[in-house]
Amino acid sequence: KKQEWAKLKDESTITAEGEHVELAANIGTPEDVDGVLNHGGEGVGLYRTEFLYMGKNQLPTEEEQYDAYSSVLKQMGNKPVVVRTLDIGGDKELDYLELPKEMNPFLGYRAIRLCLERDDIFRVQLRALLRASIHGNLKIMFPMIATLEEFRQAKSILDEEKDKLVQEGQDVSDQIEVGMMVEIPATAVIARQFAKEVDFFSIGTNDLIQYTMAADRMNERVSYLYQPYNPAILNLINNVIEAAHAEGKWAGMCGEMAGDEIAIPLLLSLGLDEFSMSATSILPARTQIKSLSKQELASYKDEILSMGTTEEVVAFIKEKANLI
Ligand code: PEP
Ligand code: MG
User: Fold this and answer.
1) How far is the CA of 204 from the centre of ligand 1 (A)?
2) Ligand 1 binding site (Cβ under 6 Å of any ligand atom)
3) How do residues 58-115 score in pLDDT, each as one tens digit?
4) Ligand nearest to the CA of 256
5) Are 179 and 201 in contact (CB under 8 A)?
6) Model pTM?
7) Is Transit peptide among this UniProt entry's keywords (predicted)?
8) Distance between CA atoms of 294 and 302, rounded to whole angstroms?
9) What is the ipTM of this complex?
């Protein structure tokens, strides 16, 4: 099997009928890029920038961030790199920010909520990203967006920093796509309205599932409710993909679900454009996708979306995608 995968390392990812889908990787540091390229990644679909801020006692400087972002972009050449802005707070603490303890950290003051209030922190990261943009194919993504106002506000801060840099005579790419994570159900429900204003969506199923099912992603007692293939989740995902396509935008996924062998045929059926996963999942996923007909899977879409239970979905897709 390993040999079969290795042969596909330098090939692009195509379905049985020859349609391309993009397989990208999730990374946390510039050191992870080697692994992405060695496993045949076509891009970075999620660069979690939290690690730059963690395990130290002060905020990273603009220069430190510029170096990290530039390094990833240069190593990836012209392949796309989606950098997610700071997703801290909640369970991921930064001692030096001295955030108050909360009853429900996952529903609390984190990510874009914190960045919009502490725009001093946010602006430093955006400047570093904008300056690094000339070194590759950068896309910027905002985490934990709940409302259209939040997206607009984040985008306008980005535009302000870009204008300032240009005024200062700095080079900034004018090709940077700006998108958002869909990990709060509210945004999946009205994805159509968001799709008019974003350049892309990336579905964060790790959080989207816990918020939709009201089941903490870390709590063993309720893990039976953490159901990626639940029709409620699939209908939300479908809503996001349809909304993106109606506006000529692309929709990806960077939650764990994107690399899962049962989820992959379901997501192909729904028309997902980009799958971002851990680097080691890329070649197995490429091998699987090669054997699947997207057209055939798409013909099951309405039937899948109208199913009532996870169990039904799993039994159906296992049979259709030869997973039995
Ligand atoms: C997600 O929520 O699916 C996601 C990719 O983000 P994280 O796992 O970092 O919360
Ligand atoms: Mg998340």
Assistant:
1) 5
2) 46, 48, 87, 183, 204-207, 254-255
3) 999 999 999 999 999 999 999 999 999 999 987 788 989 888 889 999 999 999 999 9
4) 1
5) yes
6) 0.97
7) no
8) 14
9) 0.99
